[in-house]
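dumping this here before i forget
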Amino acid sequence: MTTNFYAPPSAIRAGRIVLPEEEARHLRTVLRGEAGDAMTVVDGDGGWYRARIDHVGPDQVVGTITEERDNVGEPDMDVTVALGILKKRSRFETFVEKAVELGARRVVPLRTERTERDSIREERLRNVMVAAMKQCRRSRLPDLAAPQSPEALLGGAEAELRLVCHAGAGAVPIRQAAAEAAPVASALALVGPEGGFSPSEVEDAAEAECVSVSLGARRLRAETAALAVLHSVVGAPPNDVDGAPGGHGQNG
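structure:
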């Protein structure tokens, strides 16, 4: 079966995999998996496994590992993307989902001077991230940071390339900024909420060695801008485990 399943590292030991209850029910009731079938499992920590199903019970599926690889579907660059918390939760969830698909290693909700909401639904977002990881055939679950200010993030983050999305004086096109910095192993991109960053936040970012970047003449929604920056920095998705292109438009 082509669907990827998720099992945490604690569920994988001694060459065996035990799927979590929800994943096991999906395999049994939706996909009609049976003993002898093959399944693909990722552990969210970079582990990718192909396994033979040995047992299918009402709430448990057990398999034996037949192949194991590391960091399947993962980009070479470690990219953190930070977006101001959006007023509409569904739009922030869409951003998180797509950020996982595009290869972000870490997602940071920002509390800025212009955010109208200061909290996130952490459990909901983590579920969205797990589903996106499986769908796009990644093996590593990105980190979801606690909401924080741009100042706190910039004070603690280590990245070779730092970008702030702000189309003011001195801003350079995002692709130019990415190309001029290449090659880099890590990057941090900051995008404001609906109203953008305040002048003082932009100044603080500049003092923290962030490059101001623009995304062109069109005005983009905040979540679209964050994804555009991410794609420009990370680039095209890597090939999947079978050597085929990274699955554009394919459903898991």
